[in-house]
Amino acid sequence: MSWAIIATWPFALKGVEKASDIIKESGNALDAVEVVAKAVEADPDVDSVGFGGLPNIAGEVELDAAIMDGKDLSIGAVAGIKGFMHPISIARKVMEKTPHNVLIGRGAEEFAARMGFKNAVLITDKTRKIWEERISEIEKGQSPYEGHDTVGIVALDPKGDMACGTSTSGLFLKYRGRVGDSPLVGSGFYVDNTAGGAAATGMGEDIMKGCTCFYAVELMRQGYSPKDAAEEAVRRIHKRLAETKEHVGDISIVCMDNKGNWGAATNRPEFEFVFASDEVAPAVYKVTRVSGI
Q: Active site: which residues (predicted)?
């Protein structure tokens, strides 16, 4: 297998299709990751990433994103950034143009402006209406909606280089400034050319408690298949949290090793993701809840 891409959720399919054309011709893994994420970020029908993402408690769309180069372990991430369409591209600029790994809030926004990124209104009429309805429900004593779906991507290019990335608008009705697992290295994402890569989606507050993606990559380094590594990573953190928590949040993960073998796992009833390679056309796949939890 000369190249491969895996990404969370069916909404990544169009992006994976675009990235497949790039990576098999003259692109690289970093470009592929960015292309997939940008396609999802620009899609107003996806209410958990980028433009059209559901807002925080104050009605603001705050975005988190990260990208990582498996060749030298370089990282770029932004958190709590507002008013820009493509946080994944800003994260890549952080990686390539600064001595830092992570920029947050106003600092990230100022950096994005210096890099030439244009301001954008991210909330839509649809998501504003949903926010207004939920705020009304909260005022009446009902619990807010808690689910959310990050786009996470892992790519392998024909040179043998790997990359991964994430992008999300975070938890709906989150507190202002809340940061989940997506921009946190080792929790929401991790990749190393010498082993493989992983990206997570679900309840960030629980995913980050197990450094889930780093653990999955280290399992692949030890010889686990991506499928077994994904399942063990999800099983381990779910079981540990279930010892003291009445409810464990959604945890799903996609994994790929440095040969292009892949796998996924979830503690949900089911989880769908997208995979493509030089041998397989882009398609949606599904796994069900991992055994033993």
A: 150 (nucleophile)
Give Cα 195 distance to the centre of its chain.
Answer: 19
Mean pLDDT by runs of 10 across the 293 residues of the chain is 95 98 90 98 97 95 98 98 98 98 98 98 96 83 64 97 98 95 98 98 97 98 98 98 96 98 98 97 98 95
**Helix %, strand %, coil % for the chain, to 5?**
35, 25, 40
| 127 flagged as catalytic | no
280 secondary structure, DSSP code: S
186 belongs to an annotated ligand binding site: no
- Give pLDDT, residue 157: 97
Is 178 annotated as ligand-binding?
Answer: yes
pLDDT of residue 123: 96
What are the tokens at 194? 């010498």
Of these residues, 8, 127, 150, 266, which one is catalytic? Answer: 150
Cα atoms found within 13 Å of the Cα of residue 284, Cβ hemisphere only: 10
The answer to the question of whether 204 is labelled as a binding residue is yes
Please name each of the domains of the chain with its CATH number.
4-288 (3.60.20.30)
C-alpha dihedral sign at 96, 100, 103, 108: negative
Q: DSSP assignment, residue 142?
A: P
User: Strand locations in the chain, DSSP E?
Assistant: 4-8, 63-69, 74-81, 102-104, 151-156, 162-168, 189-192, 196-202, 251-257, 262-266, 270-277, 283-288
Instruction: Compute the distance between CA of residue 237 and CA of residue 276 in angstroms, rounded to an integer.
Output: 28
